[in-house]
């Protein structure tokens, strides 16, 4: 194996791709054109659709994104429609997809595009990088797929493919190895078909060169692959040590009343700047560590004392935090009002369409399960 952070020219020269870049590109593209999945954002010729799909696909599987993408495009068919929406509408469409900063970045960037770019996405890497939430990968994907520019991309799938193709060892997140991956992506991208080539790399990593049990015998570029030749492709890329998951504790109260629209639930937006900022939730107090908040702390949020019964608890794992939540239920009279304007009543039948997170949905579903037991 080559040492971590070896120069791009050194890596290429020592590989089976050396002097055969054209053959490598042809083999990968031929496979992609034959085997690619039909996806609603492919081949539509719309930079906006490409941008939305790429943001949604960050840390989310294709099978999950398809329905969200179609609903999003039906509600916000172009940049102008997205820019004109309010944040709650945007979060409602994103609800359940997770990593909500992505939705906020889309919304903010849409406003920038309308105000500074005449409603059209910038067509250069430099211009795309000025948009909120658009980093090197997303800019490269949009530039190559939507505008036909020979721009490199590097995501988790590409890292895995390159680590195995070129036997790159060491922490894949290290500065030196990241430089190698980006250099290889730039050196290999097909200038005639950059968008298809980049999508082919990602498709290969997602469907063939998988983290476990890669389908090497089905791989169109296995003759170029050092990992395949070694007989141990799963040894690469090396697994980076993960940061410890921090514990958190929370108390949430599902407050209900019988209103004019039937059963209603009390919700309000989470504080800005934190996890799931702006998403609607039940009255909740969270704390880092293993010390439980008190029910009285939730009552202080509401400005009134509530009689609540504990109905269960659940665990929700974020990427870096493990949150254990105690769930309480409380019913108040139909005349109950709250001085703080953050709180409002939502009909139970409309909760699924509201801008709630997966965590809030789990809390609600758990409370409903316990109602019937």
Automatic annotation (TrEMBL):
InterPro entries: A/G_AdeGlyc_MutY, DNA_glycosylase, Endonuclease-III-like_CS2, Endonuclease3_FeS-loop_motif, Endouclease-III_FeS-bd_BS, HhH-GPD_domain, HhH_base_excis_C, HhH_motif. Its cofactor is [4Fe-4S] cluster. The keyword Hydrolase applies. It comes from the Bacteria. The keyword Metal-binding applies. One of its GO terms (molecular function) is 8-oxo-7,8-dihydroguanine DNA N-glycosylase activity. Residues 56-207 form the HhH-GPD domain. It comes from Lujinxingia vulgaris. PROSITE patterns: ENDONUCLEASE_III_1, ENDONUCLEASE_III_2. Belongs to the Nth/MutY family. Its EC number is 3.2.2.31. The gene is mutY. It catalyses: Hydrolyzes free adenine bases from 7,8-dihydro-8-oxoguanine:adenine mismatched double-stranded DNA, leaving an apurinic site. One of its GO terms (biological process) is base-excision repair. It holds the Pfam family HhH-GPD. This is Adenine DNA glycosylase. Binds 1 [4Fe-4S] cluster. NCBIfam families: mutY (TIGR01084). Keywords: 4Fe-4S, DNA damage, DNA repair, Glycosidase, Hydrolase, Iron, Iron-sulfur, Metal-binding. Adenine glycosylase active on G-A mispairs. MutY also corrects error-prone DNA synthesis past GO lesions which are due to the oxidatively damaged form of guanine: 7,8-dihydro-8-oxoguanine (8-oxo-dGTP).
């Amino acid at each position: 194996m080559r040492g971590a952070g070896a120069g791009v020219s050194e890596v290429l020269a020592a590989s089976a791709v050396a002097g055969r870049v054209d053959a490598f590109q042809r083999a990968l593209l031929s496979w992609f054109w034959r085997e690619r999945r039909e996806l609603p954002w492919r081949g539509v010729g719309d930079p906006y659709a490409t941008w939305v799909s790429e943001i949604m696909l960050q840390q989310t599987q294709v099978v999950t994104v398809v329905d969200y993408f179609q609903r999003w495009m039906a509600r916000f068919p172009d940049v102008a429609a997205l820019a004109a929406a309010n944040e709650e509408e945007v979060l409602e469409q994103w609800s359940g997809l997770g990593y909500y900063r992505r939705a906020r970045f889309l919304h903010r960037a849409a406003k920038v595009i309308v105000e500074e770019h005449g409603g059209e996405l910038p067509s250069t890497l430099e211009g795309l990088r000025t948009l909120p939430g658009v980093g090197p990968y997303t800019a490269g994907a949009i530039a190559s797929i939507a505008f036909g520019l020979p721009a490199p991309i590097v995501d988790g799938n590409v890292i895995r493919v390159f680590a195995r193709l070129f036997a790159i060892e060491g922490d894949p997140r290290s500065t030196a190895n990241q430089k190698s991956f980006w250099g290889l992506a730039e050196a290999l991208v097909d200038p005639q078909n950059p968008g298809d080539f980049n999508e082919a790399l990602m498709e290969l990593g997602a469907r063939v060169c998988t983290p476990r049990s890669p389908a090497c015998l089905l791989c169109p570029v296995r003759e170029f692959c050092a990992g395949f030749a070694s007989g141990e492709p799963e040894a690469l890329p090396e697994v980076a040590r993960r940061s410890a998951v921090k514990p958190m504790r929370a108390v949430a109260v599902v407050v209900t009343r019988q209103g004019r629209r039937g059963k209603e639930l009390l919700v309000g937006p989470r504080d800005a700047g934190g996890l799931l900022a702006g998403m609607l939730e039940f009255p909740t107090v969270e704390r880092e560590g293993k010390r439980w908040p008190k029910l009285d702390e939730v009552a202080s949020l509401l400005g009134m004392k509530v009689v609540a019964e504990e109905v269960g608890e659940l665990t929700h794992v974020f990427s870096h935090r493990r949150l254990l939540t105690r769930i309480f239920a409380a019913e108040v009279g139909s005349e109950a009002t709250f001085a703080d304007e953050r709180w409002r009543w939502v009909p139970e039948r409309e909760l699924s369409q509201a801008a709630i997170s997966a965590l809030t949905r789990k809390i609600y579903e758990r409370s409903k399960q316990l109602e019937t037991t």
